[in-house]
Aryldialkylphosphatase (Prolixibacter denitrificans), 348 residues
Amino acid sequence: MNLSFTKLNRVMLVLMTAFLFSCQHDDSKVMTVTGEIPASQMGVTLSHEHILVDFICADSISADRYNREDVVKRVLPYLEALKQYNVNTFVDGTPQFLGRDPELLKELSEKTGMNFITNTGWYAAGNYKYLPQEAYDLSAEEIAARWIDEAQNGIGDTGIKPGFIKIGVNDPMTDMDVKIVKAACITHLATGLTIMSHTGLAGPAFSQLKILDEYGVAPSAFIWTHAMIEPKMDKILTAADMGTWVAFDNLTPEYKMVSRMLDLLKYFKAARRLDRVLISQDAGWYSPGEPNGGDFREYSTIFDTLMILLDRGGYTMDEINQILVTNPENAFTIRVRKLQKQADKTSD
């Protein structure tokens, strides 16, 4: 979808205002690849994108499969293009064993001046191809210990700490998926890092929320990634009403995807539930092993298409600010989120 509306300048003013007037004025913090910052400094945020992803499988993954300088050269222009939209924070969803490279993100952060947030966690989705073999032998507690160590001491010898937990599950979920979700719950309770889970349909989403409940973790600690894949909007709204973050985060320029995003946002606006929505594009994807990193998808669809349509549809500055600034700040703020009944027990 290619749009050219005269209201583009107005949309840009909205985004600039969103950056300047963030709602967080307390001591809330988020963790970036260059260190901890106040959540209020996140500004306009892309809450689920990728710089590099390598699908070669966990047993073959290696940073030797690409040259970091080549990646920077290829990706940097796409990041620089985001400056015209006042994007200030980039949440990278690439997990360990799929090409996570915190030092690459740090270099890009230093070159662009943008905040980058990386993650800890393991990705069981894709029929477990991206899990290390030891995942089968370790308990949930032992896996969580690995992730907690990264959160407290940094990833490897980089000194770079993760800002959230990234996991992925299959549908239907198996014992392995359950173990990964349990490890995420344990890690959240120990670190306050939010859980972002590659999920898709409502079945595995609610299965995971049930596990969170068993561990006393509030739904507000959980991001249902790719929720827009679920065809029944009422199921997504039910999760949001529970406090779950619902991520409409695989927007592409194709008409059907833009239309789906507009329908979802309209539905959630009518339900007064835009306060639980995250939007992003799941774009980028430098692919090691492919010429020049393969087909790289730019990060601009939200801004050069969706924002213009939202403006034409009567969305207010406050509503756009809610979606692009306030919600990401709240979602990624480092804070242990317990169910109220569990929190009450703790305070007794």
Remarks:
- The chain has a mean pLDDT of 94.
- The chain is about 40% helix and 15% strand.
- Residues 82 and 300 are 7 Å apart (CA to CA).
